[in-house]
Design a protein that fits this description.
Number of helices: 11
Strand order of the largest sheet: 3-2-1-4-5-6-11
Order of helices and strands: EHEHEHEHHEHEEHEEEHEEHEEHH
Strand content: 15-25%
CATH topology of one domain: Rossmann fold
CATH class of one domain: Alpha Beta
CATH architecture of one domain: 3-Layer(aba) Sandwich
CATH superfamily of one domain: NAD(P)-binding Rossmann-like Domain
Largest sheet: 7 strands, parallel
Structural class: alpha/beta
Bound molecules: nicotinamide-adenine-dinucleotide, UDP-4-deoxy-4-formamido-beta-L-arabinopyranose
Length: about 325
């Protein structure tokens, strides 16, 4: 298939582009480089010996995006483009609603117009809110706790309504749990600008000496050791889930959890990182972070049953690959 990938130079997008090429798909990337850079395109080329077509375009710009669909005969889209920092979304809600919701509307409008009937969307486990894990796709969604999460819930709704009105427009809503790790080549991975918000990039910055100490947000949760429990998933496993999702997308609105089904606490992740990479990560326990929940992990059985997809890599692979990428990029 010829697949247009928005946000294809970002963290998850770049890994997915690699897996699409590995599976003989033709890839067109659209990215405005707001949270990525062109160097990633060279890295994709190094890994795959393939040069995907690249357009530097903002997906919210319908006038600029539409000609891409006139120029290329596109079979399907995977929509990663979006802003993703939860804390920033609280401070800049309009930027988040504008970028994340409008990009979904613009892309879906053009897809309907050009009869591009396969649409895969990057959603998030955050749409479940605080409900008991394991989380299943048929659970009712709870009120989201921040504007970022709301942009995902709204985009899911927009795409569902678009399918209702255009039955040929097939949608896959992929709810990611906590993607971490990096490509085995060490060439692409997560490289956030500024001080990271998420746990894994914070750990690698402490291990490399860029940051002094990890702050663990609370050890009084009702979990195995009191620290927060999440379903960490290797980004390459996640990328492979997208290949399966678009290859198996035939009709309707299909919702899938992409997670491992296993919960890991903050302390377990930090200690595995220390052990596998043989490097120290100084940490201290501090207050809980506002808005955090104790436990969040997936029931991934629907994706396994319907897509034939299951995560294959464990925490040890994730910490090893994250650290290899960090060392290559210090
Ligand atoms: P990322 O920031 O690394 O990648 C997003 C890419 O989209 C970047 O390259 C950025 O430049 C681009 N972009 C943003 N707005 C754009 C626009 N208007 N037009 C064109 N390009 C634009 O983030 P990521 O971690 O790879 O996340 C990809 C998607 O997955 C996002 O939609 C994110 O919300 C979602 N998601 C991420 C996580 C996570 O933990 N990383 C979890 C759940 C869902
Ligand atoms: C994981 C655990 C923290 C940082 C967020 C978004 C979610 C999704 C994934 C996009 C928690 C603890 C963290 C630190 C810590 N993104 N922690 N010290 O909060 O599960 O999910 O990213 O869709 O929507 O909300 O991920 O990596 O921030 O935190 O102790 O410096 O690590 O309290 O228990 P989270 P995270």
């Amino acid at each position: 298939m010829k697949i247009l990938v928005t946000g294809g130079l970002g963290y998850i997008g770049s890994h997915t582009v690699v897996e699409l090429i590995n599976n003989n798909h033709q890839v067109i990337i659209v990215d405005n480089l707001i949270n990525s850079n062109l160097e990633v395109l060279n890295k994709i080329n190094k890994i795959t010996a393939n040069n995907p077509i690249f357009y530097e375009i903002d997906v919210t710009n319908e006038e600029k995006l539409e000609p891409v669909f006139r120029e290329q005969k596109i079979d399907g889209v995977i929509h990663f483009a979006g802003l993703k920092a939860v804390g920033e979304s609280v401070l800049k809600p309009l930027d988040y609603y504008y970028n994340n919701v409008l990009s979904t509307i613009v892309l879906a409008r053009i897809c309907v117009k050009y009869k591009v009937n396969k649409f895969v969307f990057s959603s998030s486990a955050t749409v479940y809110g605080d409900q008991p894990s394991p989380l299943r796709e048929d659970m009712e969604l709870m009120k989201t706790t921040n504007p970022y999460g709301e942009t995902k819930a709204i985009s899911e709704r927009i795409l569902t309504d678009t399918n209702y009105a255009n039955k040929d427009f097939a949608v896959s809503l992929l709810r990611y749990f906590n993607p971490i790790g990096a490509h085995g080549s060490g060439l692409i991975g997560e490289n956030p600008k500024g001080i990271p918000n998420n746990l894994m990039p914070y750990i690698t910055k402490v291990a490399s000496g860029v940051l002094e100490k990890l702050k663990i947000y609370g050890n009084d949760y009702d979990t195995v050791d009191g620290t927060g429990v999440r379903d960490y998933i290797h980004v390459v496993d996640l990328a492979k889930g997208h290949v399966k999702a678009i290859e198996n997308l035939h009709s309707g609105v299909n919702i899938y959890n992409l997670g491992t089904g296993r919960g890991t606490s903050v302390l377990e992740l930090v200690n595995t990182f220390i052990k596998i990479n043989n490097i120290n990560v100084p940490y201290e326990i501090v207050e809980r972070r506002q808005g955090d929940i104790a436990t969040c992990y997936a029931d991934p059985s629907k994706a396994e049953k319907e897509l034939g997809w299951t995560a294959t890599m464990g925490i040890e692979d994730m910490v090893r690959d994250a650290w290899r990428f960090e060392r290559n990029n210090i």
